[in-house]
Each structure stands twice: as C-alpha cells, then as structure tokens.
Amino acid sequence: MTDLDIRFIPNAALTEEIQSAFDALDHLAFGELNDEYSSIQWTTPDWMALGFLQGQLVTQLCIPKREITVGTERVWLAGLGGMATHPKYQHQGLGSALLAATEAFMRDTIQVPFGLLICAQETRPFYGRSRWQAAADALYFTQDQKRRMLKTCIMILPLTDRLWPAGEIDLCGLPW
C-alpha cells in the first residue's frame, strides 16, 4: 500500500480544489443529515487534517480550537469533527493513521490538554482503539443565542497529565 500523505492545513488556506474534494468526501460519508442534525449549524474549523493517496483525498477531519466549560472549569481543547474515509479505502488503517497524526498535532502544535469529539454509538469502538474515552452522553452548545442540548456519544482524548474535570460539558458556541 502507498504511504498516506497527511497534511494539516489552516482552514483559511484551503484551495477551492481541496475544499471541493473535502465537500464531496463529506457528502459521501454523511449524506443528508437526519432531522436532529439538519437544524444544527456547525462551527468553522481552524485546521483541516487531510490524508491523500497518490494525490487523491481519501480521509479527512476538521479541527477547531476552543475554550469550553466542564462543570465550573474552563478547558482549552481541540475538537475533532467530520472524520470520514472514502468507502473504497475503509478498513485499511488510513483513518487510524490520520487519528494518530492528529493526536500529535493537537498535543504538539495546538498545545491543548484534551481532544473532544462527538460521534455515533457505532463508531465509538473505532475511536476507543485510538485511546479516546467516553466522557458523556450529552453536551450543550449555543446556536442563535439559544442554549441547546445534543444527546450523543462524547469522547475525550487526554493529551497531557491533566485530568478531565467532572460536570456538564458546554461547548460555548457551535458544535463540530
């Protein structure tokens, strides 16, 4: 198998060609969102993690950096959202390779103590194999100046020795 070419690109620096490839893979992976998710506005990420094979985008995810609240504590973290691998390339370790590279990027470049992702229950084992840990079954976010709850699997990845605080998770903005 050819080596995966992983690139971390600031969202503001995406070319039209890469954005188009990202959107196509996103639609292929997620299709039309169900009713619960279709009304949600999603945040604009700070970075894109992109994996290419022979110049073709085959796996991707978005990374916003955000300060959130957990209980009474404020916590800086890197989000992980929109993780997708082209169906033709699934089960070949490409998504896992992108996750591993992203872990190092979050720790060393973004320099935050945690990663946080929102996922479907079915994908929880995939993230668990990469050391992500279940943290909650719901969180809060703000959209249109209203506080809303999202019930889904919330997972965190410790990137330092800092312990994840106890309490309700509020993204203090839009989800990713």
- Would you list the SSEs in sequence order as H and E? EHHEEEEHEHEEE
Average pLDDT score: 93
Question: How many DSSP helices?
Answer: 4
What do we call the CATH topology? Aminopeptidase
Q: Using only CA atoms, what is the Rg?
A: 16 Å
Q: Roughly what fraction of the amino acids lie in strands? A: 35-45%
The gross shape turns out to be globular
| CATH first level | Alpha Beta
Can you give a write-up of this model?
The chain has helices spanning 16-30, 35-38, 94-110, 124-128; strands at 5-10, 47-53, 56-63, 65-70, 73-85, 114-119, 133-143, 146-158, 169-170. By secondary structure, the chain is α+β, with helices and mostly antiparallel strands. It has one domain: Gcn5-related N-acetyltransferase (GNAT) (Aminopeptidase, 3-Layer(aba) Sandwich), CATH 3.40.630.30. Strands 1, 2, 3, 4, 5, 6, 7, 8 and 9 form a nine-stranded mixed sheet that branches. A hairpin with a 2-residue loop joins strand 2 and strand 3. The longest helix is centred in the middle third of the chain and has 17 residues, at 94-110. The model has no long low-confidence stretch (mean pLDDT 93).
Keywords:
176 residues; alpha+beta; Aminopeptidase; nine-stranded mixed sheet
Task: Give a concise summary.
Helix content is 23%, strand content 41%. It has helices at 16-30, 35-38, 94-110, 124-128; strands at residues 5-10, 47-53, 56-63, 65-70, 73-85, 114-119, 133-143, 146-158, 169-170.
